[in-house]
Amino acid sequence: MSFFGMKRAIVSGGLLGSLALIGASALALAQTAPAPAPSPDKIVATVNGAPIKESDLVIAEQDIGSQLQSVPEASRRDYLIRFMADLKLGAQAAEQSKLQDAPDFAQRVEYFRDKILLDDLMLKEGAKADTPEARKKLYDETVSKLAPETELHARHILVADEATAKQVAERAKKGEDFLALSKEFSKDPGSAADGGDLGWFTKDKMVKEFSDAAFKLEPGQISDPVKSQFGWHIIKVEEKRTKPVPQFTEVQDQIGNYLTQRAQQTLLLSLREKAKIVQLEKPPAPAQPDSSAKAPAAPAPAAPPQ
User: Fold this and answer.
1) Whether 157 contacts 194, CB under 8 Å
2) Is 20 helix (H, G, I), strand (E, B) or coil?
3) CA distance 236 to 3
4) Could you read off the pLDDT of 192-222 as tens digits, one per residue?
5) What span, in angstroms and rounded, lies between the C-alpha atoms of 68 and 66?
6) Sign of the C-alpha dihedral, residues 63, 66, 71, 75?
7) Domains of the chain, with CATH numbers?
8) How far, CA to CA in Å, does 46 sit from each of 38, 58, 76, 136?
């Protein structure tokens, strides 16, 4: 199992989808714990007498942090104060218009209360699971189970027809510069200008015909023309190695995300199993094929042998 597939191996799509629908911000918030509010919780501004406190700025930054990336660090505090001032002004104007008396207002407040509670629960559960020790343990366990995998560094020249492929392969095998031949003949827009360089790849990353031919070659060898769905290839293997295992520092953030999401989903699944959930509406039945549609005409019977 690779680290890049680790998340997909355990995270079920349905459960992840439910988490996203119920509390989309929970997964985002779980990446970093919120900064504690300074003490004492001093008042930093007032809006028509209503206070804006230090803790309000902390909550606002958690809410709109993604929008602050383009705001210089030195200006962020002022930006947050102005944001909170606008929020207070808007809320005061809404109250004067009696919008809080709308029939669905209390219901919406209850919904967002539940959502914030779920977010906080998921944040707490994720933070509990994602520790430096847990990251390193999972890394070591995964590395110990990774099977050695061969990968190649290769170049290729892609042409449209077999005759040209044979001509180019013959010239390459006679010692002409492969990079120059690639720039002259290759129709692959992604690699022709770079001498046909495909970088490092494992066998599963290329179409079967290409991989079967390439992985039979040793460094320095050039293939006979190989036909695939893209055309005709001439392949040159530059290097061959056992694919290196990613270093812990390279993947520790991915591992942390995985540990967080796994813990959150395990908790939610456990809560579901213990709960009594009664769905009063049945899901819609799958659509049935239209029986009035005409069936395709049967083929004409073959003529009897003479």
Assistant:
1) no
2) helix
3) 30
4) 999 999 999 999 999 999 999 999 999 999 9
5) 5
6) positive
7) 13-142 (no CATH), 150-242 (3.10.50.40)
8) 18, 16, 18, 48
